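Thread: "does anyone have the structure for this chain?"

Original post by V.I.:
We have the sequence but no experimental structure in hand. Need at least a predicted one for the grant figures.
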Amino acid sequence: MKRLFLIATGLLMLVFHSNAQVGITKLLTENLVNPKGIDIKQPRFSWQLKGDQRGISQSAYEIILSKENKNLWNSGKVMSDQSVQVLYSGPALVSGTKYKWKVRVWDNNGKATPWSEEAEFLTGYFSVDDWKAKWIVPGYIEDSVLRPSPLFRREFKISKQIKSATLSITSHGMYVANINGKRVGDVYLTPGWTDYNYRLQYQVYDITRLLQGGENAIGVMLGSGWYRGILGFEFSINNYGKDIALLCQLDISYSDGSKESIISDPSWKSSTGEVRYAEIYNGETIDARLEKPGWTKSGFDDSGWSNVKQADFPMSVLLATRNEPVKKHESFTPVNIFTTPEGDQVMDFGQNIVGWVRVKVNGKAGDKVTLSHAEVLDKDGNFYTENLRSAKAQNSYILKGGEDEIFEPHFSWQGFRYVKVEGYPGSLRPENFTAFALYSDMSKTGSFTCSNDLINQLQHNIQWGQKGNFLDIPTDCPQRDERLGWTGDAQVFSRTAAFNMNVNNFFAKWLQDLSVDQVNGAVPFVIPNILGKGAVNSCGWADVSTIIPWNMYLIYGDKGILSDQYPSMKAYVKSIQDAARNNLWNTGFHFGDWLFFKPAGDNDGRSAVTDKYLIAQCFYANSVQLLINAAKVLGYSSDVDSYEVLLSKIKEAFLKEYVTPNGRLVSGTQTAYVLALNFGMFPEDLRAQAAARLVENIHSYGNHLTTGFLGTPYLCHVLTQYGYNDLAYDLLLQESYPSWLYPIKNGATTIWERWDGIKPDGSFQDPEMNSFNHYAYGAIGDWMYRVIAGIDTYEDGPGYKHSKIQPHPGGGLKSASAAIETYYGKLSCSWNLDGEKINISIEIPANTHATVYLPASEKSVLFEGGKEILIPVYENGFRVLDMQSGKYHFSY
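Reply from O.Q.:
Generated one for you, tokens below.
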């Protein structure tokens, strides 16, 4: 066999050059495909290089931006390898204008690519003065109890040829818009949830094809939504105001160059229709007998409708939508329809999802069909809703009769696997019930699979927990009377989330709400904050303000998030400094290691309770470290110096307060040692023995974890880091309680809130807090992707510009494979064991490179693509080399 020897000093580089043509693909503007309605004056452009050959990189680029086929800006040839989030630096953009752009690059051989296909974006309104529309509210006297959904309508005439038309719209509450009888857009629960006191998003739609010459009509229905609906533990209403209001502007450009705007103003009419009640927690009631057929079409008789009233609400809070809206995704039909022991008719959709059920029904006028929703059945097989607390989670449909009717909610959603049906005329047939999953329209980026079916189900559950709870904001749970943006849950899961889906814009939007909701720097428990100004600064929850911005920078290379959030990060750290005493954060309320495992009875007194102030000190140090990291990236050298001094004092205080002279922590729990090791709280000479104590603790629990929300995400990472990777695998593969696989053995299709949501005897944990779709413990996914499959980032090349690939076979697995679609392209690593032989396949996207660690002994003979290679660099059981882009196949 022909041998290929690659010998170099330091790291090695496998390169294969080719004269094949490099191309450009996947153009993004502000991380989105052809976005509509962006109000960023200097948007950022991204693109991917494509080609089959190895070693593709970019040496220069050129961008052209145009409007109506006229070039407005040419960047010229820019000598740079940057292909992600390149800042526009041309003439000022104009509101409400469609722009197109294209790019070409020069590769590392100096060869220019063809021009890319054009991408486009539509600007929103850069100034409040661009809004001509007026806020309007219903003109009738509202039922203040049920608060039926108001209808707004207006007719208008078009007498010229239309060139283009857009609709910019928002509301107090949620809206559904229709033009000439057709729904505007395919998004739901708009305008989404922000802190409406400071930030209210509007959406922009291209409605050119919905308009027609002659008579037209626009109709909009509103629901209370997050703005004034029931929210929180005390069922409070009117959190942002008691009104419900509409603001919309239809901008039409005609072929003759003229323009016209149809706006919300006092000329509109208002009434109510079939949606008689709609609340997020309780569900929706639709009475089809009260439907007003044709109200969104021209020619409808609205003489009996009320004139609307103009309202004086602030316009300064308006901003264009920057995150992906909520859309319908997967659909399900019942996998089983049965009667419970208690006599209920129940449908099982086979998957715990978040969304709603569309019902097809034919019956008599006045027939009422009620759907109730549940995540689980009790041990006797009966419908179980006690864990929903006060949330009714019911949708009721009253028939007009005489024909097939189709019902689905507009302004409510449920978290469920099982649906109880009452009042349905006739037998329940699967084809008449379709469940739709609703979640933010984030692109799916990551995949993971291995030879263990239970771990594959765990990955399935992690992904579906994310889908169900990433519904415009990162909620804790989707089913009970909560559904709030809990900060602790979001921060522990953020890296896992960023592997499975592109959450760049999703978190960027949510973090802006965090910034405006901070109370003198202190970070609320939930964002948007509806719990009050006193519900702030619990360690591990509030640290979301530093952890997620840094994670998003690492995963996406998004320096903009760091820049935008840096004042928030500083303000948070300052709030801790103000609360600390002698550099110890030992004041205030803290949730601690939430929902940790506590042995029943605790007869030997070793309960896994971790000192909350010890936890606080660890997170304090971590947030300061992340602030230092961000300051270095942003060039704030003076901040770096001052925060490094502070960090030294914080760690010194930790040692004095929480560590004995022999290196033992005052709290001997797994979480205590995990956090102290993960955040570098021990001096170097005490770390090995601390890791040994952690291992001893795990063994004392029969190789079970005892960690809660804050310790769990780092547990396996710390074990791997300190040479106990086999034990990390043991914890992952543990099937008895408490473990990740215990819920799966009990039929879970999403991640549970508690390790024992369903106990071994079939009974339930405390129904006051027992969600079966709660993603926090799904943070183990981060270890699966970064350690089992070995795909990781480096700080010197964030966004996978420089990747680390270091797979760790073990745990009896025969194979594992993971891939992530980065902004540069697909990055993947898969391995399989064939007897004593291991095969590893790697794909590195163009314009990036990777440092690869191959698990091999010093004596192993390695082959790549069938050719023997020599890799002299050896580190702790791995052969190490640096690799340029391309596909590689190793065997040894």
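V.I.: this helps a lot. Residues 1-13 have pLDDT under 50 and may be disordered.
O.Q.: and The longest helix spans residues 612-634.
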